[in-house]
Amino acid sequence: MGLYSNVNVLYNLSWFFPIDSGFFYLVQLHFCEVNRWMKNVNQRVFDIFINNETTEVKADVIAWSNGYAVPVYRDYVVLVPKVNNGEKQELWLELHPNTKTKSQ
Domain count of the chain? Predict the structure, then answer.
C-alpha cells in the first residue's frame, strides 16, 4: 500500500498471531497516514479481514481522522471458539486494497 495505486491492487498485507482458543479477543488496530502525499479521502482505501471475515469495508484513514498525520484506532471483538482442548490457533489479520472505490 504505497504510492503507486496500480501496484497496490496486486498485494495484501497479512499477519498471523498464535493465540489460545476458547476466548473473546479485543483486536485494536492503530492507524496513522504518514505519507505526506496522502491528504485526501479516497486516496488509499482498503478492506480489513480478521479470521477470514470481513471486518471493515472501504477503510480510509484520512476519512476516519479528518486529516494527515492524525492517529486513529478501531476496536474489533473476535470470538475464537475452543478447539481440541483449547490448543493454540492462529488469529489472521489481513488488509486488502479495495478496488471497487477506484481510489486515486
Answer: 1
Q: Give 5-9 contacts, CB < 8 A, sequence gap 24+.
A: 5/103, 5/104, 8/44, 8/97, 9/97, 9/99
Counting as low any pLDDT under 50, the low residues of the chain are none
69 in a structural domain: yes
Q: Domain of 33?
A: 20-97
> Is 46 inside any structural domain?
yes
9 inside domain: no
> Which uninterrupted H or E stretch holds 65?
helix 61-65
pLDDT digits (tens, 9 = 90+) for 36-49: 988 999 999 999 99
Cα(first)–Cα(last) distance of the chain, in Å? 12
> Is 49 a domain residue?
yes
Q: Rounded distance, CA 30 to CA 16, Å? A: 17
